[in-house]
Amino acid sequence: MDIIDSILLVLAGFIFMEFIAWFTHKYVMHGFLWILHKDHHIRDGRKLELNDWFALFFSVPSILLIYIGSTHSLDYRFWLGIGIMFYGLAYFMFHDIYVHQRIPILKKHTNRYLRATMKAHLDHHKPNVQSNFGFLLAPLHYYVSEFNRKN
Question: How much is the pTM?
Answer without folding.
Answer: 0.90
